[in-house]
Amino acid sequence: MTVGQDGSGDVRDLLGLQTVAAKVIIVAYVLTFLLLAVATAPGYGAWWAELLAWALVSGGAVTLIRYPGDPLPLWVGIGLTMIGPAALGLVLAVIPVPIDGLLQTWPLGAATAIYTYMCVRGRTILAWIGMVATLAVCAVWAELTGQGAGHGIAISAINLAPLLMSTFFSWTIRPAARDIYELREQTTIQVAAEAGDLAVLEERERQLHRLDELARPLLERITAGEDLSDNACTECRLLEARLRDTLRAPVLTAPKVVEAAWAARAREVEVILLDDHGMNDSPDAVRDRILEAVADLLCDAASGMITVRVLPPRRKTLVTVLHDDDNTVRRFEFGHDGALLARQHV
């Protein structure tokens, strides 16, 4: 089971390890073992070992729920594996022999909780290595202190039961999680495809409706065999240019630009609108500013040819307007903030 760079799609989502409840449990874990470390310390001189062991297990618990990836990265898993024997070794080095109570070996329970969730996070082998190493530390300590290795195993082997259960649980939940996320991914792809198809159909319906409104009256007059007046011919020419603009420069088909281009063409100004998609991601305020400026330039054009071009993305200039009125050629350049960058006479 794999995940993206953002850590989404791993078993943490399925088990709720990123929820507020999980964070509350981690806080309770940290505070509980802090209390045990302080309460079971044989004296002030042993606090350094107890608190260092507590810091190790606390860091491991936080890492388990916060670090993304499924399975856990190998280096993170190795670090968690070392927490159990390290924390237990620190505490066993300062507690009395024989111990006053099993609570003094609290790192055994803390490490077991970490190794249990390591199984769920996909590092079962490392979890068992860590648990075996922790039991070995307990056995070596008992042997060195004259209690016998069997005593060390006896007081620590009970922690194998939760790890064994979590191992079987991981064998069940991880394949299920994989199937769930694969199904969710397939569903997402299907929904996106359906949404894309629906958007295409809706856009097609809009264009057909728009074409029906614009062209139908003239087409009906032509098919009826009526003689077209000069005004009707002019209207056909203007309509053809307007429809061409919708294909070549869709971003410039705002009503104010369309009306200004229609009026300019009616004055015998040749208008060319081009869109190379540089304004596709521009903020609405920038678009409005540029469209307003383009409409004003079209309204001011009395003759000649005016070319409005939206440049490709990542250009220094966003839009250029070139007006050739036979006597002079003027060039206007607009930046990505919609402001006029330059006005030149060519």
Keywords:
5-stranded mixed sheet, 11 helices, single chain, 2 domains, alpha+beta, 346 residues
What does this structure look like?
With 346 residues, the protein is an alpha+beta fold. The chain has two domains: 11-187; 231-345, no CATH class. 64% of the residues lie in helices and 9% in strands. It is built from eleven helices and five strands; from the N terminus they run ααααααααααβαββββ. The protein has helices at residues 11-15, 20-40, 47-66, 74-92, 106-120, 124-144, 149-156, 160-223, 230-248, 255-266, 284-300, and strands at 270-275, 305-310, 319-324, 329-334, 340-345. Strands 1-2-3-4-5 form a five-stranded mixed β-sheet, with helices on one face. The longest helix has 64 residues, at 160-223. It is elongated and about 115 Å long. The chain starts with 10 loop residues before the first helix and ends with a strand.
Regions with pLDDT < 50 over 5+ consecutive residues? Answer: 1-8
Amount of helix = 55-70%
Helix-strand string: HHHHHHHHHHEHEEEE
Rounded to the nearest angstrom, the radius of gyration is 37 Å
Distance linking N and C termini = 62 Å
Strand order of the largest sheet: 1-2-3-4-5
Domain unit count: 2
Overall pLDDT confidence: 84
The total strand number stands at 5
Indicate the proportion of strand residues.
Answer: 5-15%
